[in-house]
Amino acid sequence: MPTSCLTVEARRLDALYKLNLLDTPASEAFDRITRMAANLFKLPIAAISLTDADRQWFKSRVGVEHDSIPRMRAPCGQVADSSDVLVIPDLAQDDYYRNSVLAEKGIRYYAGAPLTTTDGHCLGAMCVLGTEPRDTTPEELTALCDLAGMVMAQIELQHALGRVDAVSGLPNRHQFIEDFDDLQLDAGEGEQRLAVLLNLATPDQLTHAARAMKSTYLDELVTEGARWLRAEIGPGHRMYHVATAQFMLLSSPGETLASWLPRVEARMQKAQIIARSHHMATPSAGVVPFDVNHDDALSVLRKARSAAFDAMASPNHVAVYSQEEDALYQRRFSLLNDFSAALQSRDQLRLVFQPRIDVASGECIGAEALLRWIHPTLGAIGPAEFIPIVERSGLAQATTAWVLEEALRHQQAWRHAGLALQVSVNVSAANLTENGFAASVAACLARHHLPADCLELEITESAIMEQPVKAHATLAEIAALGVGLAIDDFGTGYSSLSYLQKMPADVVKIDQSFIRNLERDTRQQALVTAMITLSQDLGHRVVAEGVESDAVLAFLRHAGCEEAQGYLFAAPLEAADFAAYSCPISTSALRVPKLTLSPRTTAVLPE
Ligand code: C2E
Ligand code: MG
Ligand code: MG
User: Fold this and answer.
1) Which ligand 1 atom lies nearest to the CA of residue 607?
2) Which of 216, 243, 332, 368 has an alpha carbon within 20 to 30 A of 523's alpha carbon?
3) Residues with CB under 6 A from ligand 1
4) d(CA 592, ligand 1 centre) in Å
5) Domain termination site, one of 109, 133, 159
6) Distance, CA of 507 to chain centre
7) Residue identifier of the C-alpha nearest atom 43 of ligand 1
8) Ligand 2 center from residue 383 Cα (angstroms)
C-alpha cells in the first residue's frame, strides 16, 4: 500500500510508536498526574491509557493490577477513535459496554479525556474509573481535560529532549531522520525533493578554532549561523542542526533544482560576506535531489555532506551532489580500509625493483623498491592510486615499515649471494615527522645485518616542505647513520632552492616529466642541463628518472648526468628477475626465498 494512502488509524499508530512510550517502565512524572486524577474524583482507579492496535496499555495506573486490557469494548479505545471526552455514568446501564471486560470486573463508572498530540493524533485517554455509578460535574470534566493536557505536555517534553540542539535551539539529526520518514506519509509516487546542507566552516577551520579559541567561539559561530539562517529562510520552514557546524534544509514540494539552486547560490554569496566579517569561517553548501519514497534520511544526509565538501573547492561554494565524485570518494575510502588488511595479509603486497644504471659504464648499480598491491577482489591497484590515499592516512608509517623490512630482507639475501647493490626505498612525509624514525631505520638494518650504505631513502621536496624544520632534523639523523638520501621527483611540487642547499641529500632524482620529451624540446633540455649543473654544484649526484630512449640517454650522458632509471633499461622487475638482471651469471644463487607468491615472473610495468 502506498504510504500516502495510510488510514487515519495507521497514522495515529505511527505517531504513537514514534514516541517510544509503549512498554516503557513506570515514571513518577506520570504517576503523579494519575494520583491527582484519582484524588480529584475520589475514585479508586485512574490511568494513563494508550491505545495500541489491539490493546489499551497503561503508562501509569492507580488501582489496576494489569498493565493492559484488550482494546475491544474498552472505553479508552472509543476516546482514541473519536478524540472526544467520554463519560459513562453506569456501564451496567450502557448497551455497548454492559458486556465489556471492565463491566465484568465490576467497573460501573468511566470518564476519559483524550490525549491528543500537537499534530492532532489521539494516543489514548487520561481516565478515571469507579465501582459505583456516578455523575460528573463540569468542573471535574475540565480538571480531567487539564490533566490530559499535562500528560501530553510531559510526553512531548520527554520526546523533545534529545531532539533539539542546546546551542542552536534547532531540531537535531534525530528529529531530521524522523521528519524525513514522515515526508512519505503525504508524498505521491515518484515525488522529488531537494535537500541542502549548509556547512559553516571547513574541517580545518573547525580544528584550528578548537585548538586556538575558547569553546564559546564555536558556540557563537553556530548560534549566529542558525540565527542568520532562520532570518533568511523565514518561518514555516524547518531547519535542522545535523552536526557541529552543519544545518540541513528540505525544499517544499514542487521546487526544482533549476528554481532552487539560484536561490541557494544567492544565499551562499551573502553567507560568504557575513562569514568573512564575523566568523573567519568559509561556508559551503551541498544540494542533493532525492526521491521521497525511495531515499532514506541517512543516505540523503551523507550525499548532501559529500556535496558540501566538494563545494569547498568550487568558486561559489555550492555543489550539487555528483554520483561520480561520490563513487570516487567511496572507492578511496574502501581502498584505505582494505589496505589496512593488505598490510596484515601475506599475499596482497609485494615489492618490485627497478634497476638504476650508471650512465658512464651502463652497469646496474642499484634498484628502487616499488610497492605493488593485488587487491583480493579488485585485482591490481596502481601505486599512483593507493599511495596518495595511504600517505594521507595513519597507515603511512606502517606502510614504510613494511616496505623497509621487505626491501632489506631481499637486500640481505642478495648480499649473502655476493650482489652488493644499493636499494632505494620511498618514504612519506609522515615518516619525516615520526618520532624515532631514524632509530627504527637503524634497527631494521641491524635486524638484517646490513651496513647503512646499502640503503637509500627517497623523499620528495613536497614531503620535506610540509614541516621543514622537523623534516630537516629527521634527515640529519638518517644521514648521520650513513644511510643515503635522495630527493625524489625533483622539479615538481614545492621547490625551494634554499632548502636544497641545506639538505643532507646525496642524490637528486630529476622527475620523469622533465626527461620524457627531452630529445624534442630544447627549452626542456636547457632546464634539465641547469638542474644537473645546479645539483652537482651543490654536491649531489644526479639521477634521471623515466629514461625511455637512446637519444635521451645520449643527451643525459653529454650533460654529465651520473645515473639513469627507466624503461630503456628495465621496467620494475620482480625480485628474482631483478637479481637475474643485475647479475646474469649466477642467478640461481641469487634467488631470494619469496615471502609472497607472485603471479608474475617478467617485467612489471606500473599497474
Ligand atoms: P617514483 O618514486 O617516482 O617511482 C618511479 C615511478 O616511475 C614508478 O612508478 C616507475 O614504475 C615509473 N617509471 C620508471 N621508469 C619509467 C619510464 O621509463 N617511463 C615511465 N612512464 N614511468 C617509469 P610506480 O611504480 O607506478 O610508482 C609511482 C609512485 O608511487 C612512485 O613514484 C612513488 O612516489 C610511489 N611509490 C611506489 N612505491 C612506493 C612505496 O613503497 N612507498 C611510497 N611512499 N611511495 C611509493
Ligand atoms: Mg621514488
Ligand atoms: Mg620519482
Assistant:
1) 26
2) 368
3) 354, 370-371, 382-384, 387, 403, 426-428, 458, 488-489, 512, 545-548, 565-567, 572, 606
4) 23
5) 159
6) 40
7) 426
8) 11
Determine the atom of ligand 1 nearest the C-alpha atom of 460.
34
Residue 464 within any structural domain of the chain: yes
476 and 544, same domain (yes or no): yes
Q: Report the C-alpha gap between 402 and 89 in whole angstroms.
A: 84
Give the domain CATH number at 224: 3.30.70.270
What atom in ligand 1 is closest to the CA of residue 370?
38
Instruction: Give the integer Cα–Cα distance in Å for 532 and 542.
Output: 6
Residue 396 lies in a domain: yes
CA of 486 to the centre of ligand 3 (A): 10
pLDDT at 324 > cutoff 70? yes
Whether 594 shows a pLDDT value over 80: the answer reads: no
**Which residue minimizes the CA distance to atom 7 of ligand 1?**
546
Q: What is the dihedral sign for C-alpha 538, 544, 550, 555?
A: negative
pLDDT band at 186 (very low <50, low <70, confident <90, very high): confident
Q: Report the residue among 545, 550, 565, 578 best suited for mutation to probe ligand 1: largest number of ligand atoms under 8 A from its CB.
A: 545
Could you tell me if 317 and 339 lie in one domain?
Answer: no
Judgement on whether residues 304 and 377 belong to the same structural domain of the protein: no
- Cα dihedral 146, 150, 156, 160 in deg (nearest 10): 140
CATH of the domain at 64: 3.30.450.40
Q: What is the pLDDT of residues 270-309, one digit of tens each?
A: 888 877 776 668 899 999 999 999 999 999 999 999 999 9
Is residue 509 within 8 A of residue 488, CB to CB? The reply is yes
Residue 460 sits in a domain whose CATH number is 3.20.20.450
pLDDT tens-digit series, residues 19-51: 878 888 888 889 999 999 999 999 999 999 999
Give the pLDDT confidence score for residue 602 in this predicted structure.
36
What ligand has the least distance to the C-alpha of 386? 1
Q: Domain boundary residue among 291, 321, 351?
A: 321
Give the cell for residue 236: 514555516
452-486 pLDDT per residue, tens: 999 999 999 889 888 888 999 999 999 999 999 99
Do residues 229 and 128 both lie within one domain?
Answer: no
Q: Using alpha carbons only, what angle is made at residue 115 by residues 109 and 120, rounded to the nearest 5 degrees? A: 135
Nearest CA to ligand 1 atom 10: 606
Ligand nearest to the CA of residue 343, numbered in listed order:
1
- Name the residue at shortest CA distance from atom 22 of ligand 1: 546
pTM of the model: 0.69
Same domain, 345 and 492: yes
Q: Are residues 346 and 282 in the same domain?
A: no
What is the tally of structural domains in the chain?
A: 3
Q: Which of 396, 399, 527, 370 is nearest to 458 (CA)?
A: 370
Q: What is the chain's mean pLDDT, rounded?
A: 89
On whether both 193 and 54 belong to a single domain, the answer is: no
Substitution site in 386, 426, 460, 490 for ligand 1 pocket (most atoms within 8 Å of beta carbon): 426
Say if 477 falls within a structural domain.
yes
Of 216, 227, 582, 601, nearest in space to 423 by CA: 582
How remote is the CA of residue 370 from the centroid of ligand 1, in Å?
6
Domain housing 268:
173-321
Asked if residue 168 is part of any domain, the answer here is: no
- Predicted local distance difference test score (pLDDT) of residue 511: 96
Q: What is the pLDDT of residues 52-109, one digit of tens each?
A: 999 999 999 999 988 999 999 999 999 999 999 999 999 999 999 999 999 999 999 9
Residues 76 and 32 in one domain: yes
For the cut 90, the answer to whether the pLDDT of residue 150 exceeds it is yes
